[in-house]
Structures are given as structure tokens and as C-alpha cells.
Write a structure and sequence with these properties.
This protein is mainly α. It has one domain. The protein has one helix spanning 8-25, and strands at 46-47, 53-54. It has a two-stranded antiparallel sheet. The longest helix has 18 residues, at 8-25. The termini are far apart.
Amino acid sequence: MLSRYINIPIFLIALSIGIFAVYITVPEKRNIYVFPTHENVEIMQYKDKADNCFQYKETEVDCPTNEKEITQVKPQY
């Protein structure tokens, strides 16, 4: 009964062409890196390369007066 209305080989060919067209036109996945700031530290959760989720806690500290005691830590992707 269904074969009276739908030609099965033509349907399968059209379906495979449609799936292939969707596969090649999907946009590339973009990674967006978000670093913690004092505005987003409470609302953001982060995931590391081992799929562990974590959240930062903000604590205010006094800066040392000697500039040699201040270290800069570069972001690690």
C-alpha cells in the first residue's frame, strides 16, 4: 500500500543525498575560552581536559609591596 505512493529506491537516494548535504554544510565547532573574573566567578562552572567540573571561589588578598614577589601565571589551555 505504501509503495503505491512512495518509490522506495528514489526515496532512499533522496534521503542519502539530504543527509550528506546536511553533513557537509554543518558549521565548524568553535571553542570559546572564558576566564574567571570577579563578575562571573559565582555563576560559571569550568571543565578541564579530564572532564572534571569545578568552580572558583573569590578571595581578596593584599598585594605584596615588593614587585619581585608578584608572579604572573599564564592561562593553561
